[in-house]
Amino acid sequence: MKMNWAGVMPAVTTKFTEDDQLDLDMFSTNINAQLEAGVHAIILGGTLGEASTLTQDEKQILVQHTVDLVDGKIPVVINIAEQTTKGAILAAEQAEKYGAKGLMILPPMRYKATDYETVAYFKAVAQSTSLPMMIYNNPVDYKIEVTLDMFEELLVHDNIQAVKDSARDITNVTRMRNRFGDRLRILCGVDTLAMESMLMGADGWVAGLVCAFPRETVAIYELVKAGKIKEAKAIYRWFMPLLELDISPQLVQNIKLAEVATGIGTENVRLPRLPLQGKERERVMAIIDEGMRTRHTILDLVNVKVNV
Hints:
Number of strands: 8
CATH architecture: Alpha-Beta Barrel
Mean pLDDT: 95
Protein name: Dihydrodipicolinate synthase family protein
Strand order of the largest sheet: 1-8-7-6-5-4-3-2
Largest sheet: 8 strands, parallel
Low-confidence stretches: none
Distance between the termini: 16 Å
Structural class: alpha/beta
Radius of gyration: 18 Å
Helix content: 40-55%
Organism: Flagellimonas iocasae
Number of domains: 1
Keywords: Lyase
InterPro entries: Aldolase_TIM, DapA-like
Family: Belongs to the DapA family.
């Protein structure tokens, strides 16, 4: 299966039971809802997936289980967030062995690498694998920016093909398009900037609230691509208070609460995370409750389908 870096790609949550085991039944329920909505890939092992808390055995189980679930319909992409180049290369090898079709990769974790070190890190991983790669550019949270000049160096590798851009600067899309044309596929990595990014030429959306609202997320993408901006805007405006739950240190807890509301998840998180408490929980629940209350008013707009 050729990796097409376009469309809606959920960065899915990992489901746990109340006794802190993998909840593969609920995980399957969610993945099946994503497939039914028409998402274009599944991304495992991101922040939303609580990957830093998973054992290697659990990661292997999740990858292989997801590959079996999607059954060749869409690709499975694995996020790599390692502290060392050696660790990242090993993670890429394991991802390929377990059946992944693509990699999303962050700069080295817990070390503010120089531009030279960051480029060398990405190149080493690219040279170690045949899998196509998407660079995750998130200078806001991870303090390292992958600049246009750095991408120029990286694109000499045929398997470095895309960027998940979370720089929170819409003009970045235009700068990348002007510099690289279609050599670099662009996916928005910030829920609250997704429609704007796609209107400026982004190829897709690595999404968070899609975990709870897959149909609405896919509908926005498809309506934008079909030029039905008025319809897309109506859904996006309804969605915005919910999308803002993604830009929070507690995004995992927020989105898992939303998954409970739509029946495709549980609230269980893994320590050190804990479920939301007190006034913050009340605030988040009020946003989710209002979104659910008004959801029926936009469902007629959700059924538009176009080809990517």
